[in-house]
Design goal:
There is one protein chain. By secondary structure, the protein is of the alpha/beta class. It folds into two domains: 2-66 and 224-251, no CATH class; 79-210, Rossmann fold, CATH 3.40.50.620. It has nine helices and seven strands, in the order ααααβββαβαβαβαβα. The chain has a five-stranded parallel beta sheet, with helices on both faces. Helix 8 runs parallel beside helix 9 (229-251).
Length: 253
């Protein structure tokens, strides 16, 4: 009963309610206005939108993107590189003001555990992307110190505002310190594009994906066919990664 209620509720809340409205417009165009071609177009577009709103499709697309790289069973390297992914400049935190958003916070957890396993320096890459966002690397550095990482083991790259610059500026620091085997930590959905950018910058990395968005072994349930904003976000993220990778290939940015 609980799952049935969730399934039903998803059709009266966004994005489900918009799908219902679009289908209603299509019915009106066909039955009242007699515009069958227009109705068919509306139904087609609505169907595509609906599919991108389902967890079933999100699991397929996101799962494929996240499985491009597997984390090594026994990671080893001489520096851990973590890419930023958003920060809040003025949100209250345990040890000060400013905190990381969800994805980079998950990345940082993996970084801390790798640090205590390998005892190698950490390079945090990420600047202040917008005027009202936080300085990602500086906030991450503060949090790392709170979690027991000595300041002398943290390198901060705070100029980059996208993945291309993450790789470019990190490559400079990696070269300056003579690191030869950097372990790259970022979200699994972001790893393919991140590795591509580091290779363009002349750095071969050991990929360590984390912050997985979908299950590695999904089981079908009918509720995965209900429209959800979370599923739409995941699918848009996949499309964004593909688009940005192609843009970088042709523009170098």
């Amino acid at each position: 009963m609980v799952y049935l209620l969730k399934f039903g509720a998803s059709w009266v809340l966004p994005p489900g309610i918009f799908i219902v409205i679009f289908l209603g417009i299509a019915w009106f165009a066909w039955r009242v206005r007699g515009e069958k071609d227009l109705a068919a177009v509306i139904v087609g577009v609505t169907l595509v939108f609906y599919l991108f709103c389902t967890g079933f499709v999100a699991e397929k697309l996101m799962g494929r993107l996240e499985s491009v790289y597997e984390p090594p069973e026994t990671p080893h390297g001489d520096v851990i590189v973590m890419l930023g992914g958003g920060a809040m400049p003025d949100s209250p935190d345990v040890d000060g003001v400013g905190s990381l958003c969800g994805s980079p916070a998950n990345r940082l957890l993996a970084v801390v555990r790798l640090y205590h396993m390998l005892h190698v320096p950490i390079l945090i890459s990420g600047g202040q992307v917008y005027s009202d966002s936080g300085a990602e690397a500086k906030i991450a550095s503060r949090v790392l110190q709170t979690l027991g990482v000595p300041e002398q083991d943290i390198l901060v790259e705070a100029k980059s505002v996208n993945t291309t610059q993450n790789a470019r500026y990190s490559a400079e620091i990696i070269g300056e310190h003579g690191f030869r085997e950097p372990i790259l930590v970022t979200s699994a959905f972001h790893m393919r594009r991140a590795v591509f950018n580091f290779e363009r910058a002349g750095v071969r990395v050991v990929p360590y994906p984390t912050d997985y968005m979908v299950s590695r072994h999904p089981v079908f349930h009918y509720t995965k066919l209900r429209p959800q904003t979370e599923a739409l976000f995941d699918n848009v993220t996949v499309l964004q990664e593909v688009l940005r990778t192609e843009i970088t290939k042709y523009t170098g940015r």
